[in-house]
Amino acid sequence: MEGWIALYIFMLAAFAGIEVIRRVPAILHTPLMSGSNFIHGIVVVGGMVVLGMADTTAEIIVGFIAVFLGAGNAVGGYVVTERMLEMFKSSDKNKKE
Question: How does DSSP assign 23-82, residue by residue?
Answer without folding.
Answer: TS-GGGHHHHHHHHHHHTTHHHHHHHHHHHT--SHHHHHHHHHHHHHHHHHHHHHHHHHH
